């Protein structure tokens, strides 16, 4: 006997579990299906983000940062450390604990909000009376009938052609989070978020890390001034970053991976490493979804085709997150999940794609929202820029972390904030104020007139806003 629900969500990553909870809050009967399992075979909702993405990588970044601080920076605080050692199994074990806490937290939220959870793979089966038939394949077979379906199946790592992931020598983000020993030499293909974050983790723990990037410019999506500052900092730390390379036919053996490539000057090179992290992007995950069976339309790149409201071509079938167009960010998926639940309820769910922040959790951190200088120049927008270095910020000096700056870009005529770009300590937290200002279409003067506590890093944003009008007070 099929079980009936108002809303069935396929996928319990950030987009899926949030959509399910919001729909339940709005009074719908809701089920959520997710196949992810932990090492014990138990349900592990949270998707890539919780299991092998955002959460575990931040846990390892924190641990590796502590290790580097103890090695190189505690002495300047008068803290002497003798016999410093690294227990990698404990470090990775802590990461696993953090992940499980998040898995369990989502299961608790489902229970609290009366969302019925099914551990298995969900597939669209047929359009039937009462909505859509969905088959759940897992420990037991189930058929669900849903008036509305929300697809939130996420994405999968893209493989390098001819070099499949074995998670032993050739690593995706998943394998890169669970190495049993610190490699002597580590290669990373792709200088994006994943490559830089995981490369930073293993460099701090003692690996010699080389990053190869095909694009001619470093971090082309970021503001060029920010990208240059970050590149300088990463190089100083010991990351060897090469841009404009062309990768040849890489080969893995039992003990190493060999990557032939042509460097930016045209010279033939070869990189031999103990492990290779491949982080060249992600592809939408629609395998096993039943898209062809029910006629669900995919676009030319394999994403589920949707309109501006996240509706697919099928009636009452919606899709959110990495499996649809737009940036592959957990917080973007969450906002879409909330918006879709509210649209199902007849409300006006809204996502402002122009104010979705981007963050790279390296050290220094990098964060931005809105347009950068090169985009404004290309669009012919007249703008003013103001920046402020963390070197002149009292809290940054006290922290001993003065790398980087804050930049505010504002319309030349109206002073409306068009973009904010930060490279430096806790940029990930500082960007939230900029997002808020931009959501209200605020001006640089608004930031400049807001009282910021002293001493805080946030004062650097105020000072950068003052600098837009050439009246910075502390620089």
Give descriptors for this structure.
Pyr_nuc-diS_OxRdtase, 3 domains, Dihydrolipoyl dehydrogenase, 22 strands, alpha/beta, globular, Pyr_nucl-diS_OxRdtase_dimer, five-stranded parallel β-sheet, FAD/NAD(P)-binding domain, 475 residues, five-stranded mixed β-barrel, Enolase-like, domain 1, 14 helices, NAD, redox-active center, 25% strand
Quick description:
GO terms for molecular function: dihydrolipoyl dehydrogenase (NADH) activity. With 475 residues, the protein is an alpha/beta fold. The chain contains 14 helices and 22 strands.
Please provide a written account of the structure.
- It is globular, with a radius of gyration of 24 Å.
- It has three domains: 3-157 and 283-351, 3-Layer(bba) Sandwich (FAD/NAD(P)-binding domain); 170-280, FAD/NAD(P)-binding domain (3-Layer(bba) Sandwich), CATH 3.50.50; 355-468, Enolase-like, domain 1 (2-Layer Sandwich), CATH 3.30.390.
- The mean pLDDT is 97.
- The protein has 475 residues and is of the alpha/beta class.
- β4 and β5 form a beta hairpin.
- Helices cover 32% and strands 25% of the residues.
- Strands 1-2-3-4-5 form a five-stranded mixed barrel.
Beta-strand percentage?
25-35%
Rounded to the nearest angstrom, the radius of gyration is: 24 Å
Report how far the terminal alpha carbons are from each other: 71 Å
Query: Class by helix and strand content?
Result: alpha/beta
CATH architecture of the largest domain: 3-Layer(bba) Sandwich
At the fourth level of CATH, the homologous superfamily of the largest domain is FAD/NAD(P)-binding domain
Mind summarizing the main beta sheet? 5 strands, mixed, barrel
Helix count, DSSP H or I runs of 4 or more residues: 14
Number of strands: 22
Query: What's the overall geometry?
Result: globular
Main sheet strand line-up = 1-2-3-4-5
